[in-house]
Amino acid sequence: MTTPDAPDPDLTSPDAREVAAGLVALLDLAEIDDHVYQGYSNPQPGGHVFGGQVMGQATVAMGRTVPEGRRIHSSFSYFLEAGAPDVPIRFTVDDLRDGGSFSVRRVLASQERPTGGERMIFAMTGSFQEEQEGLEHGESAPEAPDPEGLPTTAQVLAGIEHPVARYWATQRPIDIRHVTDPIYIRPDGSASATQMVWMRTIAPIDAPPLVHDAILAFASDYTPFEAIMRRQGLSWVTPGLRAATINHGIWWHRHVDANEWLLYVQHSPSASGGRGLTEGRLFDRGGGLVATVTQEGMIRVKQ
């Protein structure tokens, strides 16, 4: 794998910079009380709140309550109900433990009901650790072509006039480039349960380390379903396809700069009972393992 001499010209355009800046603003929660924060949602196709957004915001909420110098190393999330995109989300953080080098937090995300009262839409626990020395080993990335030679989402979907296609091509703050054939509009026919994508922010951002950790959580939710869909011969436009995340686990082995390319290798070992499981590994440009992800989701095709 080689390091590019310069960023792709299309990723430094004013529109791309605006979309990337919008992601940083989305993760900049307002503190409304002690250990209570509030965030908003960006519009999404289908009128729902993107799960990665809530995970990223919850990561920021928890991270603001831990002692200085501790960064997240693991999180586990449950998606309880679909969020309403036009209603602010409240994140309430509980201190579960502060030890000599580790801190554990729980955050609950809620929204006000139109008829009054609150409903819980999401729960996450996270563990944070001071930087420490220790044993070192890690898997290496598989062989993959450099991302600069792969088509952008906008290039893959060029000429397709559909609101979802336009959103994927122009409004996603993460640049996603498929190593395996994209399945936006057609199955790839391989019946493979494995896929690889390169990811980074759509344009360079300047943000504190906590936001970079939150962006990894945000981006990790975009493509895990595709390993299941690829194995089953489906695409995102398969009639009757319904998919929703149930739970999502992340382990940060090393901390990364979200401006740099990450290779996301995904494999689905099982689908049954209307659910599918995907395991993912994220590697930096040098081939080092930086994070591990697991996701279980509801996935069904209604006839």
Automatic annotation (TrEMBL):
Segments traversing the membrane: none
Keywords: Hydrolase
InterPro entries for this protein: Acyl-CoA_hotdog, Acyl_CoA_thio, HotDog_dom_sf, TesB_ACOT8-like_N, TesB_C
Acyl-CoA thioesterase-like N-terminal HotDog domain span: 45-129
Signal peptide segment: none
Chain coiled-coil ranges: none
Keyword Acyltransferase: no
Superkingdom of the organism of origin: Bacteria
Domain Acyl-CoA thioesterase 2 C-terminal span(s) in chain numbering: 187-298
Family the entry assigns: Belongs to the C/M/P thioester hydrolase family.
PANTHER family, per database record: ACYL-COA THIOESTERASE, ACYL-COENZYME A THIOESTERASE 8
Name of protein: Acyl-CoA thioesterase II
The organism of origin for this protein: Brachybacterium huguangmaarense
The organism's taxonomic lineage, starting at the top: Bacteria, Bacillati, Actinomycetota, Actinomycetes, Micrococcales
